[in-house]
Design goal:
- By secondary structure, the protein is an alpha/beta fold.
- It is built from 11 helices and 8 strands.
- The radius of gyration is 19 Å and the shape is globular.
Length: 282
Amino acid sequence: MAKKLAVIGAGLMGSGIAQVSAQAGWDVVLRDITDEALRRGTDGIRASYDKFVAKGKLSAEEAGAALDRITTTTDLDAASDADIVVEAVFERIDVKREIFRTLDGLVKDEAVLASNTSAIPITKIAAATERPERVVGTHFFSPVPMMQLCELVRGHKTSDETLAAAREFAEGVGKTCIVVNRDVAGFVTTRLISALVVEAAKLHESGVATAEDIDTACRLGFGHAMGPLATADLTGVDILLHATENIYTESQDEKFAPPELMRRMVDAGDIGRKSGRGFYRY
C-alpha cells in the first residue's frame, strides 16, 4: 500500500516536494488556501513533468501516473490520514506555529510533522504541538526536482525515530541528506549563503566591485556553480532578506545584519528573476 504524504502550501517549494514524492510512488495531497494557488502549483508540476518527458528522463506513462497520485484540496483535514506532513508555507513563525497547532489535533499519533523552513528553529515550531518529538525539519532546495540536497534538522526534542523516518522519506524521493544536530537559526546552509550574500551585497553597495565581478570571483576562485548575488536573484532577494533577518534576530550576530541595499531593493520590488530585476536585469 502506497504511503500518503500531505504537503501544506502549493508554492514553488511545496509543489516541487509534491512532484518528486508522487514520482517516487507516494500518494500526495497538496493543500493550499485558494483554488487558484492549487491550480498554479499543479500547472507547474505538469510543466516540469513535460520537460522531463521531452528530455527522455521520464516516460509519458510515468508522468501521467505520477500526476494521478496528486490530489489537491483547500481543506487541512485532508492531512488527517497522512504518514508524513510537510509544511511549506511562507517563512513566518506565527503562520507555521498555527498550522502545526492545527495539524497536531488532526493527524494520527505516528505521523511525522515536518517543516521545509530554511531558517526558523524547529524547536520553536514544534513547541506549538503536544508531540515535539514527532516534529523535524526537512529543508529541500529550489528547484526541488533538480537540487539533490535535503537538510534534516533536529529540534530540541526530535526523536531518533522521527529523524530516521524523515531521512527514509527524503532519500526515497532521491535526495542526499545532511543532518543538523542543533537547530540554530538558519541551520547550516542558510547561515552559509546568508553570510556570503550579505558580505557580497555590502561589497557591491560600497562600490568595491560590481555584482558581476563579485560573482565571477566566487565562480572561478571558489568553484561555485553560481555567484552569491546571482543566487540571491534566483532565490528571491525578499526571501533571502527575510531569512537573514530571522537569523540576525535570533543570533544578534552582526555578520547577518542585512545591508541597506537589500532592504531598499525589496522596498522597490527589485527582488530578482521573478520581478525582472534584482542585482541583475532579466
